[in-house]
Amino acid sequence: MAERKAFNIIKAVPVVGHAYGAVRGVVYAAKGDKSEAKHSIEFDLADLNPLRIPKNLVHGIQNATHSLEEGAWIGRRALFNQPLALNISPGIDGFHWCIQINGIIYQLGVDKDHNIKIRISSKTEKNAFYERDCKEYTWFLIQKELPDFDAEQLRIYAKSFEDREYRLFIAVGGKMNCQSFVTRMFATAANISVEKARSKILLVIPNLLF
């Protein structure tokens, strides 16, 4: 929607963006749109660093001028449905990540027994989840164009992570969390190494320093 695209730019402006987000959150809450209301007031404490303003503006403009259905996008929202979070660096932050690849969202979660479950949604599959997540997450364009790949093979690859052991922070030794999952999915879709994928994500996703 046009208003959301404008908001994604405005919210990068200190004070003005925060004030607009607060009012916007109240308006959408009154309309019963909890996902959009949450997006309005969510705040990364690392945004208090003024060095992040240019990067945040770039992301806002990309959101306004590019389609989520094209390329690879990383989505972030604060953990545990909280309005505040802190991003130190990829893998060490208070955000849940997912990835949208050519209009399909791949998301790692856990069930009540902490077993990994992969949810795949799009406009044609689990549409209610897809529409909610498109609103609730803040999206960052990682790569506009991707090489050709077999979508069914990518789906099988995503589901294969359900066999891994879950680790909330700093997943190593074969263990997996949402950020490790997103990195590997991006690497596979872009046909690059996991190390190169990590480097690209580090440059694009805002962190404590920039």
What is the strand and helix layout of this fold?
Elements: H1 2-10, H2 16-30, H3 34-41, E1 43-44, H4 53-65, E2 72-78, E3 84-85, E4 87-89, E5 92-93, E6 95-101, E7 104-110, E8 116-121, H5 127-136, E9 138-143, H6 151-159, H7 178-190, H8 194-204
Parallel strand pairs: 1-3
Antiparallel strand pairs: 2-6, 2-9, 4-5, 6-7, 7-8
Helix pairs in contact: 1-4, 2-3, 3-5, 7-8
H/E series, N to C?
HHHEHEEEEEEEHEHHH
Measured distance between first and last alpha carbons:
28 Å
Number of strands: 9
Q: Tell me about the biggest sheet?
A: 5 strands, antiparallel
Radius of gyration: 16 Å
Strand order in the sheet with the most strands:
8-7-6-2-9
**Which structural class is indicated by helix and strand composition?**
alpha+beta
Tally of helical runs: 8
Fraction of residues in helix? 40-55%
Mean pLDDT: 89
Question: What does this 3D model show about the protein?
Answer:
With 210 residues, the chain is α+β, with helices and mostly antiparallel strands. The protein contains 8 helices and 9 strands. It has helices at 2-10, 16-30, 34-41, 53-65, 127-136, 151-159, 178-190, 194-204; strands spanning 43-44, 72-78, 84-85, 87-89, 92-93, 95-101, 104-110, 116-121, 138-143. A 5-stranded antiparallel sheet has the order 8-7-6-2-9, with helices on both faces. A two-stranded parallel sheet has the order 1-3. Strand 6 and strand 7 (104-110) form a beta hairpin. Helix 1 (2-10) packs antiparallel against helix 4. The model has no long low-confidence stretch (mean pLDDT 89).
